[in-house]
Amino acid sequence: MKTVFRKARIATSAVVAAAALGLLAAPAAQAAPTGVTNPDFEAGATGWNTFSMPFGAQVINNSAGRPARSGSWKAELGGHGYTGMDRISQQVTIPALRVPVLTFWMRLDSPTPATFGYHELTVEATAQDGTPYTLVTRTNKDSGSDYQKVTVTLPSAFYSSEEKTATISFFTVDDASNRMPFLIDDVSMAYQLKVYKPWFPPLFKL
Predict the structure, then answer these.
(1) How far apart are CA 61 and CA 165, in angstroms?
(2) 42: left (phi over 0), alpha (psi -120 to 50) or beta
(3) For the chain, how big is the Rg over CA atoms in Å?
(4) Phi–psi pair at 86, nearest 5 degrees
(5) Alpha carbon distance 170, 52 (integer Å)
(6) Could you report the per-residue pLDDT of 108-157, keeping only the tens digit for each?
(7) Nearest Cα to 72, choosing from 158, 199, 186?
(8) For residues 198 and 67, what is the distance between their CA atoms, to the nearest angstrom?
(9) Nearest to 35 by CA among 88, 91, 73
(10) What distance in Å separates the CA atoms of residue 117 and residue 81, rounded to the nearest whole number?
């Protein structure tokens, strides 16, 4: 019995040591304890700040002409046929010692006719100190026939030993020639443990 107990204790110590050195794989992304509010827009604009210039369009809507990926509501950014900008944003809380990962679904229909004006989507994360970081950019060249999943890990500036906040923004800038909006739906944040590469001491020749 003593031999068995000793072996078990050695095995446990090895696991603890390996974890301390970062030799064990980190668990998969976990659901955010304070994640995105109203991630599928089914509660309208609840939880989101919206801005549309110059005419104040309802950028979060349930228009059947351009359907949502799931449910009835989605964000519809740009494509009004005038020069301007649309924006939606929301502040999220990033737990301490976690790497934030943003996922969303995006659709930009192929235009008819095949050419149209300038149109760009930017996804941005603003740190607690006010510094903005561009996460994703898409243009009218990224059109397709269906929603596409986009996943991006936020930069190291958002990793901290303390709980922090970040503002996630989606905004479009386009001209009067464009009439095809970017559609955004099912936005989510997940948080991962940071994975460190194992370190081994160098081998010295005698």
Answers:
(1) 27
(2) alpha
(3) 23
(4) -120, 150
(5) 12
(6) 877 655 555 678 899 999 999 999 999 999 987 777 779 999 999 999 99
(7) 186
(8) 47
(9) 91
(10) 10
